[in-house]
Design a protein that fits this description.
The structure holds 2 protein chains of 2 kinds. Chain A is mostly helical. Helices cover about 55% and strands about 5% of the residues of chain A. Chain A has 29 helices and 9 strands. In chain A, the strands form 2 sheets. Chain A has a 5-stranded parallel β-sheet with strand order 1-3-2-4-5. In chain A, strands 7-6-8-9 form a 4-stranded parallel β-sheet, sandwiched between helices. In chain A, α5 packs antiparallel against α6, α6 runs antiparallel to α8 and α20 packs across α28. The radius of gyration of chain A is 31 Å and the shape is elongated. Chain B is an alpha/beta fold. Chain B has a single domain, classed as Rossmann fold (3-Layer(aba) Sandwich). In chain B, about 25% of the residues lie in helices and about 25% in strands. Chain B has 6 helices and 13 strands. In chain B, the strands form 2 sheets. An 11-stranded mixed β-sheet of chain B has the order 2-1-11-10-9-12-8-3-6-7-13, sandwiched between helices. A two-stranded antiparallel ribbon of chain B has the order 4-5. In chain B, β6, α2 and β7 form a beta-alpha-beta unit. In chain B, α2 crosses α5 and α3 crosses α4. Classes of the chains: A mainly alpha, B alpha/beta. At the A-B interface, α18 and α22 of A face β5 and α5 of B.
Chain lengths: ~700, ~300
């Protein structure tokens, strides 16, 4: 028998029995807590779960690579990475010791915890302990010294004094210090043990060895070191058992719930919204009660680590609107706990926590539900895969069902329902924008074409956007592209109708458009409108319409790369705004940038670019609602122009979305940056690059008024 | 709506004895200061409420238009359809009346009636989706523009059969703007009628309704009317609820009763021809930059003034 050490050294028989008794109690509490969690989730709506292997492997990848946790906060990411690997290794080490002590020896009379294995084990666990403490120190430094705003519990959706999140702050520090104390007492145990029982292989536990040297220098040896070991052992043991028992009830629950949520998450969350059963009763539409939530969504509430990245990324919160994605999740979590969870079972209701099944209205305020632009910034950055956007959308569905919505939004729904477009224009006017062209655009209903242009409402009816549509039409003609459109048969694609919560209207629009498109002969569809592009590409397949769908930036790039456009470099200095529906929703980040490169403009990136792009504020049907402007706040779109103009002198703010054209044309004027920067749609710049006169240039020249 | 505490009200009683073809002749009224509006709730133990609402599917035209070959109607391709705004408000008002009764545990029913071809059932379905219990369509020729008297005559037997406490119509339709059907229907049914109503409160124990009409200059006309009565409802009386497309699709499954009209008497007019008015002469479009346009306007104004 080689190097090892006795387990339970210096403990009496009774103490060992007591320890096992406590371990049973601790494990019992843990299991009860986990059972309560499972029961809580089972109260939710059933939802099938398939592809288990793929889910598991994706979860392992996300959890072990820390890909999501590291984003937009490398310090906290590194801290968590260190403590995660340290903790995991220590957990595995403890499990190995448990197998040795409680299974291998008593049952199989086998001892593997000795010799080289033991020495390697000691070294590995010492390193793990160091990682754990280093990670925790970094996290504590982040929380106490760096103090990023998002870790504060200030709620943008409530007035000060209306809420109390101090319990969470206490919970965060208790969690951190418990783990820290476990690590420290673990090392102390080593040191005391080595100080009392000298061993020639002590250096295999480097930290313990250093501590041992230190204790010896202080004169702590022999029986006094053994006593210190004895006391520390109990402190460590009680702390560890308490921690295990507390996992399902504290911040530590994320150790279970977060990986579980990553595994069961919907990879298309928010991008493909669910349908409503045709025979659903009005009260069953969307979310109103906690048990309307799917079991996955109930689980996701416990996955939240309160990191605040969602609220930090939220354009509504940035504009001072009463929405905080994190606090929406926490409100739901509190209500679920006090109504369905362990708190309910024990009759504990912390101060200020909501209670009751019906959560719509209180604590989930309708103003919060309607403030969301469904831009996906929160879902996209959430390190644990919480699906704020579809949850909010479900609440909207119930509000729409009750008719509790902005009267302007209701009128827009009615208008779309009667005219097929959100502008309330007669359907005959849809192709009117083509009248300024030198050629006739093919009618897809009558002749075949390679490309079907699904124009969309804004690009068809809004005067500023009509110019861009004509610019693109001219570019396509010059490239010799064979394209056609649906003329009067096109209706609004419904992307934002769906995101505003009017699922019935959306499905009837989708069905009508699919019928119209199906009657045409073409190879691919494209649109300049990312909202239209998104829903045609990703959501229409669910209604029976599957085609290859492109955004015009992709089409332009294709034509440029095929050498079908003769471009001359423009030499402008520009910045580019990623539309939510193109970027975050569909990860088309490069095509527009490469088009800009091809036409010889210098692209200066804004700090928030690509996946971190800030929504213009129009999405999710917000453009159809009365604007809420809290006092002293600045619109998200104005903040975006501030961001662009802070980059130094730029010629253009380039966009690739008709709603962005509208929102940012406005924001340039209202933000106080009028004259500093101008807006251009991608197609306009391409048209300029091929040397054709743009009608925006002529229109601008026509309206220019002399300063005097 | 006026504020509740300081308006002048003219209170009159319009019983079954006040009726005329085009508007009841009000009895000399009592001028009074009213302290508050009625809130529409009903005392306990009053009988059930039944409301019939007459609705119309209206058309909207854009800036382009074409006519049918006979020149008597507009080509359907150029038309968008919707439920008449005033009628939606009337349906909402009826629903609120009956919901108040239902909340008090009483039976109540809202029946919607329209005249027209099958395509008009779309309007009825919207009303069903809002919450109306039954819908009746009196057959009418598709796409034909009927005169108000013919519409009223076709509605009359159906509405009479339903024996409602209250018959509601919109004040007018947004497409033909005649404000005639409601009043004609009241005459045909020999019901008292109050037009352009802005507030209704039922007193079913008493068998009356107190309704308010807004007059010019902030005056409010308060009329007490015996039930059953016909009221034509003005917009602004309520914010109509939203009928989700999902609810409308579900309403597609409900059966709509179709009634054949009785023999038609001649209408009050006949459409001979619909046409676009000839373009007027004399308009001059000013073109050029804003500065040039402004200069030209100054020139023109000076010329006219001198």
């Amino acid at each position: 028998m080689g190097e090892t050490r006795p387990v339970y050294a210096g403990l009496s028989h009774i103490e060992v029995v007591l320890f096992y008794g406590l371990a049973v109690v601790s494990t019992g509490i843990f299991c009860w807590g986990v059972a309560r969690l499972v029961l809580k989730y089972r109260a939710g709506r059933r939802e099938p779960l398939g592809r288990l292997v793929r889910r598991a492997s994706s979860m392992v990848d996300v959890v072990f690579s820390h890909r999501w946790i590291r984003r937009r906060d490398p310090i906290a990411g590194l801290g968590h990475l260190l403590l995660f690997y340290g903790f995991t290794a220590l957990f595995i080490g403890t499990t190995i010791l448990g197998i040795q002590t409680d299974i291998a020896r008593p049952i199989f009379h086998a001892d593997f915890w000795s010799g080289r294995f033991y020495l390697g084990y000691k070294l590995a666990l010492d390193i793990a302990g160091v990682l754990l403490l280093a990670g925790l120190t970094l996290m504590a430094f982040n929380r106490a010294v760096r103090r990023p705003r998002r870790l504060g519990y200030a709620r943008p959706d409530r007035r000060a004094g209306e809420y109390d999140r101090s319990l969470y702050r206490v919970g965060d520090w208790v969690f951190l210090s418990t783990l820290f104390s476990l690590g420290v007492t673990g090392f102390l145990l080593e040191g005391f043990f080595l100080a009392s029982t000298p061993q020639h292989f002590a250096a295999w536990s480097p930290v313990g060895w250093v501590l041992m040297k230190w204790f010896r220098a202080m004169g702590l040896t022999g029986s006094s070191a053994a006593l210190a070991h004895h006391v520390t052992w109990w402190v460590h043991a009680v702390l560890a058992l308490t921690f295990v028992a507390s996992i399902p009830f504290t911040k530590a629950v994320h150790m279970i719930a977060s990986p579980a949520n990553v595994a069961v998450r919907d990879p298309a969350a928010g991008k493909r919204l669910s349908t409503i059963a045709a025979d659903a009763a009005p009260e069953d539409v969307g979310y109103r009660n906690l048990d309307d939530l799917s079991w996955r969504h109930l689980l996701s509430l416990d996955a939240c680590t309160k990191c605040g990245k969602c609220t930090e990324a939220c354009p509504a919160a940035a504009a001072g609107l009463p929405l905080s994605p994190r606090d929406l999740i926490l409100d739901l979590r509190e209500a679920a706990e006090t109504t369905l969870g362990a708190h309910a079972a024990l009759g504990i209701r912390p101060d200020g926590w909501p209670e009751g099944l019906d959560v719509l209205g209180d604590p989930i305020r309708t103003a919060s539900v309607w403030s969301c632009t469904q831009c996906m910034a929160c879902v996209e950055i959430c390190p644990v895969g919480i699906e704020h956007v579809p949850i909010i959308n479900q609440f909207r569905r119930q509000l729409v069902e009750r008719g509790e919505m902005d009267p302007m939004l209701q009128r827009t729904f009615e208008t779309i329902s009667s005219t097929g477009n959100s502008f309330g224009e007669p359907k005959r006017r849809r192709p009117k924008w083509t009248e300024g062209l030198q050629f006739a655009v093919k009618d897809a209903r009558k002749e075949a074409a390679e490309l079907l242009w699904f124009v969309g409402d804004y690009a068809s009816f809004d005067p500023r956007n009509q110019r861009n549509s004509r610019a693109l039409a001219e570019v396509l003609r010059r490239a010799g592209a064979d394209f056609a459109m649906l003329y009067e048969a096109e209706r609004t694609a419904g992307c934002d109708v769906r995101r505003a919560g009017e699922e019935g209207l959306y499905s009837s629009l989708a069905e009508a458009n699919i019928e119209a498109i199906s009657g045409c002969e073409f190879e691919r569809i494209f649109s300049t409108d990312p909202h239209t592009f998104h829903t045609l590409k990703n959501e229409y397949p669910g209604f029976g319409g599957s085609w290859t769908v492109l955004h015009h930036s992709e089409l332009l790039l294709e034509l440029i790369e095929a050498g079908r456009l003769e471009l001359r470099p423009l030499g402008y200095r520009v910045t580019y705004h990623d539309p939510c529906m193109l970027g975050r929703y569909n990860e088309v980040y490069d095509a527009p940038r490469r088009v800009l490169e091809a036409i010889g403009v210098e692209l200066v990136e804004m700090p928030r670019n690509r996946d971190n792009s800030l929504c213009c504020g129009a999405g999710g049907g917000r453009i159809w609602m009365k604007e809420q402007r809290p006092e002293g706040s600045r619109r998200a779109s104005e903040q975006r122009i501030d961001e662009a103009t802070s980059l130094g002198r730029l010629d253009y703010f380039v966009v690739a979305c008709p709603k962005d054209v509208t929102m940012y044309s406005d924001a340039i004027k209202t933000s106080g940056h009028d004259g500093e920067i101008e807006l251009r749609e991608l197609s306009e710049l391409v048209l300029e690059s091929i040397g054709a006169p743009t009608d925006s240039a002529t229109a601008l020249a026509g309206t220019k008024v002399a300063p005097d | 709506m006026s504020t509740a505490d300081n308006f002048v009200g003219i209170v009159v009683h319009a019983g079954g004895n006040v009726k005329g073809l085009f508007g009841p002749r009000f009895l000399p009224g009592v001028v009074a200061y009213l302290a508050r509006h009625g809130d529409g709730t009903s005392p306990e133990g009053t009988p059930e409420v039944k409301a019939v609402v007459c609705v119309k599917q209206v058309v909207a035209i854009g800036d382009e238009i074409a006519f049918t070959d006979d020149g008597k109607s507009v080509d359907g391709d150029y038309l968008d359809h919707a439920v008449n705004e005033w009628d939606v408000v009337a349906v909402e008002e009826a629903l609120r009346m009956t919901e108040a009764a239902s909340a008090a545990g009483e039976e109540s029913e809202v029946v919607v009636v329209t005249v027209g071809g099958e395509e008009n059932e779309e309007a009825l379905r919207r009303c069903l989706a809002m919450g109306a219990q039954r819908a009746i369509r009196v057959e009418g020729q598709s796409g034909a523009l009927l005169d108000p008297l013919t519409v009223a005559r076709r509605l009359a037997p159906v509405v009479a059969r339903e024996a409602a406490d209250v018959v509601l119509c919109g004040v007018q339709s947004s497409d033909s703007v005649q404000a005639a059907v409601g009043t004609m229907l009241a005459e045909l049914l020999e019901l008292p009628r109050v037009a352009v109503v802005k507030e209704i409160s039922l007193d079913r124990a008493d068998g009356t309704a107190t309704v308010m009409r807004e007059l010019e200059g902030g005056l409010v006309d308060v009329v007490e009317v015996d039930l059953p009565a016909l009221l034509t409802v003005q917009t602004g009386i309520n914010e109509p609820r939203y009928a989700t497309l999902r609810a409308i699709k579900q309403a597609n499954l409900k059966e709509i009763e179709v009634v054949e009209p009785s023999q038609d008497a001649p209408g009050c007019y006949e459409i001979l021809r619909i046409y676009a008015p000839p373009r007027g002469e004399g308009a001059e479009m000013l073109e050029g930059s804003p500065a040039e346009v402004a200069a030209r306007i100054v020139e023109l104004v000076k010329a006219r003034l001198s």
